[in-house]
Structure of 3-isopropylmalate dehydrogenase:
Amino acid sequence: MSNPSLLILPGDGIGPEVMAEVRRIIDWFGTRRGIVFDVSEDLVGGAAYDVHGTPLHDDTMTKAQEVDAVLLGAVGGPKYDVLDFSVKPERGLLRLRKEMDLYANLRPAQCFDALADFSSLKKDVVAGLDIMIVRELTSGVYFGEPRGIFTEGNERVGINTQRYTESEIARVARSAFELARRRGNKVCSMEKANVMESGILWREVVQKVRDEEYPDVDLSHMYADAGAMQLTRWPKQFDVIVTDNLFGDLLSDLAAMLTGSLGMLPSASLGAPMANGRPKALYEPVHGSAPDIAGQGKANPIACILSFAMALRYSFDLGAEADRLEAAVQKVLAEGVRTADLMQAEGGSPVSTTEMGDAILGALEASL
Ligand code: NAI
Ligand code: MG
């Protein structure tokens, strides 16, 4: 059997800086755990534009379709603000998401105990928190027709349409149930079936997929507004939450901020299963290219490192190794190792991007 394959797209700004630390971690898994990836690296965003005149070369797109998983840093920067919309760095990322048809966006909210003080919620509400929001990403009200601003009589009307087909609901539900089986085996589906027909269909289809294909997974339903309340009141009641594009946009941002800083947040976008049974997958930190700190060695590499941990768990079935990597991050944070973005008023001196990488590698080594 060939090695699992990874395409690495560092991108712009702090993208290459944080990705350099991930590369060291990938190498560590190869030499110390015998888990060897076929890694290829290519350009995306402004870095690709500088060389090819396009933010994503066709060859790179083809490669992305062929590998087991894509790991991306970040794209964009002030240098590219003047470019035409069609070749802006973000277009490279959007093309990847669209052509790979990545319909399930995964955003974890995980509390690293040493950072529990960062939360706006009480410590015991967030300590140990580990939930996953699955947001439908390619349909719903952001895409439905009709849409536009029209004139009706003597005033204008703005229209967007919430539209979901049964198959669109079923496939994102399957993503959520598959994830739940690798986690706490519990899914809560959120919609507004009380006031929206699309919500009635959503609830019905999710229940049917559960009953026919995932009878072992625990499923509950909640109205999305009640879900927002429950997320802030007692988030630990949830394991996996599955919801539509609009509610997911709001709920995933809300859930992410329960635990903390942009420099800590990973994400994944998954599509249909490939011939080998693995879903098409793109892993990336939630943050952007951070031009204000780029080139200064200040960036926190943890969001990108945790994105790789998600790849281990969800693309490569290496949950125990993902646990090992997450535990290493927990350990260095508990020891007080902090990049500048994780410093609070009490002071102390921050470590650099590379020093954070060193500390995590040290913790991995200590885990053997
Ligand atoms: P940003 O996420 O790049 O930065 C926001 C703030 O958070 C900045 O102060 C930055 O220094 C800080 N920050 C972000 N990541 C950090 C990390 N790992 N360690 C320490 N501090 C970190 O968002 P912003 O400033 O709105 O956008 C900057 C550029 O990035 C723009 O060109 C934007 O279009 C692009 N962008 C790209 C994204 C992507 O590639 N997925 C997502 C968001 C923005
Ligand atoms: Mg949002």
Q: What stands out?
A: The chain is about 40% helix and 20% strand. Residues 249, 253 surround magnesium ion (ligand 2) (CB under 6 Å). The chain has two domains: 1-110+261-368, 120-259.
